[in-house]
Structure formats: C-alpha cells, structure tokens
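Budget justification note: compute hours in this period were largely spent on complex prediction jobs such as the one shown. Inputs:
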Amino acid sequence: MTPPHPFDNAIHLDTIDGNVRRGRTHPEWANFVGPFGGITAAVMLRAIETHPDRIGEPLALTVNFAAPTADGDFDISLRAARTNRTNQHWLAELSQDGAVTTIATAVFGVRRDTWASTEAHPPAAPPPEQLVPGVPGDFIAWGHLYDARFVAGAFPGEHAQPNEVSTSTMWMRDNAQRPVDYPALAALCDIFCPRVFLRRGGFVPSGTISLTTYFHADQRQLDALGGDFVLGTAHANRFSGGYFDQSAQLWSRNRALLATSHQFVYFKGQRSQG
Amino acid sequence: MTPPHPFDNAIHLDTIDGNVRRGRTHPEWANFVGPFGGITAAVMLRAIETHPDRIGEPLALTVNFAAPTADGDFDISLRAARTNRTNQHWLAELSQDGAVTTIATAVFGVRRDTWASTEAHPPAAPPPEQLVPGVPGDFIAWGHLYDARFVAGAFPGEHAQPNEVSTSTMWMRDNAQRPVDYPALAALCDIFCPRVFLRRGGFVPSGTISLTTYFHADQRQLDALGGDFVLGTAHANRFSGGYFDQSAQLWSRNRALLATSHQFVYFKGQRSQG
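Corresponding output:
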C-alpha cells in the first residue's frame, strides 16, 4: 500500500463533533517556529470543506496567525456565520488547550458562467524543464517536500548580498505531484520566503501575521492542472515599522491565473543595520 | 456649534457593554444596496479602537460582507482572540436582530523603528490642483462627501465604452478635509467603483464580499497628512466565474505608501454579453 502523501497526512482531520475537527502537527511540515504557515492555511480551509453544510467552492480565505501552533494535536472549531443563496461566510478557529493560535475567515460560493477576462500577465519564465530543480528555502523541513525552480529572486544563500527588489519568481510543484486542490493551492500561495530575506540578503526573524488568498481557479481548472508545475511570483510594496506586505500570483503553464494572495508580515531588525 | 462631520456621525458608537458597541446607518452613506462598504469597514475598525484592552495601532483589517446592513441600528460585538506582547488579534461581528451581516478580523500592533524601504512606486499623476474636482461615482449618496479628481479610469458615464484595462487613478479627499485617521484610511481604500464597471463600460450589479487592508502609515505619517489629498490607484487581475479581485494602493503627496488594500468582488453578467 502506498503511504499517504505528507500533504494528505497534514490536512487529515478527525470529526470530534458537528463543528469541531481535530488535527495534529507533523514534523515534515515544521518551519523555523511552528508549522509552515501554508499548511496551517490549508488545514483551516480543509476543515471548512469537511463541514456537511458547506456550499460551493472556496472564493476567499484570510488566515490570521496569532501564535505559533505547538507540536501536537489541535482543534478547529467551525461556524457558518451566514449562509446566502449562492455564498457562505465561515469562521474557523484553531486552538490548543483552549488558547486560540489561528483565526480564519472564508467565503465559499457558487461560480457562474459569466463574462471573463484575465487582465494581469504572467511573469516571463522559461519552461520549468529548462531550470534546475531546488527547494523553496534552505534550513526548513517542509522545503524538501517541494520542487522549486527559481527564475528570479532565489532564496539567499550563505554569501548573498542585499537585493534592490524583493521579487521572486519560480516554478513549483510538490515532489509527489499530488493533484492541486484548494488546500494545496492555499499552501502554495505561502511558499515564498519572507521578502525581507531578499532585501537584506539573508535570514531575518519574521513571520506572517495575516494571509489572504483569492481563489480564481474553478474546480475544472484545478482538474486540468493536476500535479503540474505552477508559476509563482511574489513581491513586497513597503517595509516599515517592523512590518511589510507581500502580494503573490500563481499561474498555470497555460496562463490561467489560479490565485492571487496577499500577506502582512512581522520582521525584526534595527534601523542601525540599514 | 459646528455640526459633526458625516464621517464622525457614521463611526459614532455607543457602548452597550464591555464587548458590544451600537451604531446606526446614515442616509448620506447609502450605496446601491446598504451602506458604502468603506464606511462599514471604518466602523468595524473604530469599534475595536474603542475597546479599552486594545494595544497598538491597526496593522491589518479584513472585512467580510455577508449581507447588506439594513437601515437602522446595528450592534458590533468584539473579542480579543489573542493578545501577545506587541500585537493583538481581534474578531468583530456586526449584527442586526441577531443576524450577522459583517465579519471582521483585525491585527493591531506596536510599530518599531526598523530598517525601512518603499519598493513600490506611486502612479504618475499631476498635482490635484491641476485636475477637475468631481465625485468618485455617480448615483450614490456617499460619493458627494468626497472630492475625487481622476487621473485615469474615471467612473464610466452615460455613453461610456468598455475599457481594455480596469485601472483607476485619482486624487481624493473628503470635502470637509477631516484629518485622515485609520478608520478614514480604511474607508478611502474602498472608494474605487467596481472594476467591472470600467471593463464593461457601465453599471454592472456587483458587491465586495471580502476586503483586506494593510496599514503601512504610522500615526506620525497620518498626522503629517492631515486632511490633504491622497493618491489612490486600483486595478483588477482576473474576472471569472462571477467574481473578480481588486488591488489598490494609497499614497500621500510626498510619496509615502499609506495603505495597500485588496478585495474580492461578486458581479453579475451573462457570458452572452461578452
């Protein structure tokens, strides 16, 4: 029997009661402190997907990282705050020993066949087959679960210098080519290392405090994508006061904009370093 | 005695108990259906600001519009889901007659003196004094509370044609030049008409379902801004399945990036129109 994919392990949830799911952290998904934020976003979304009252597909997801999740079990409590005819507003809270570590809101809804247009353009990139396989970031356990092929803005190595821009562009897929579903797409949106690493030329203590993803892909587009590479690009707009923002886009090989994602990130660093 | 500014009226809240505030809708702020989303975002943020346990300044705000707020009173319930040493995670729910119409999460926190850099560039624009005063949009009550001076992508008028891009850029300030505080900044982030109006060349039924704003400006920068014009620019990335995203930036005259803001919007429209 094939062992389950690490991603499926990570988003596996047991039903405790109608509105509570129980999951657990997995060492493969460890980040510097607590689990990879993307896997936490994925499990929050997955928890809502398991609810029998859920209607439609994910449209928007916001995950606020209030505290690191400790190693071990966690509970996710779910509440449909409002159900409309074609969409539904969810609240989800992840807690451990009664203390909330993660808060999420999500909008699910029905997609309809409407006028459509993609106004954004994917970043210029050679096909992934022409690039060197690598990892999205060094020193982190979960990085080794992905194949990341940088076009620009690679993770800064040992002798890296500060960059003038924070943009990273890379092809990425998970190593086992597990088909991309909404939780996997939510995780991919958070795969980029903190933009401050690029600008400062190395590791800077930092952590996402709020992550918002808009899902543009419908289920048919995800089915067409399967486990293929996704082209991701991310940049920051402003660093100040110990925080910066990041905006990212994820594209399929055939130029479908799958998701746009934004986050606000805490970072540490004295002015004197600048 | 000078009557209070309509914005101060709109965000005025009475304390019902420690965690509940009561406000009311105001006809000046009416939109097509329910109040202007920006004023709802502002009052949610204001409610958190009034809480005696609040620490620091607003960093990130997400407002999910679950249903239109009906004319009349509303209650906002507040909960500090997690308080850390330098930041705090809030949940706020606006309800009428026990039914939730709006859900917000917010992160407040302390800003520190760190390395800083603004990577984005403001859009090219002549000074506001060289442009014609106008309103952000026709047919809406609240539009007349603002002075909006378009640089690009004006609100489509009666004989407008579809545009190839959805970008709007404009200088804006409220008519009474009330100093911009965080609630006012939150409202300004939602001032842009739905991007689908630009692309389709006219009115299309639409409404924001989720709005996220990152506050880059600290209090000192807001004090320096006062009631001066703010340069806003907004664009969409993809329209599909009856939804589109919008990303916006708000700049001060002296090129400070005050806020970045993103939203996901429902729109109506048959494929046959395209």
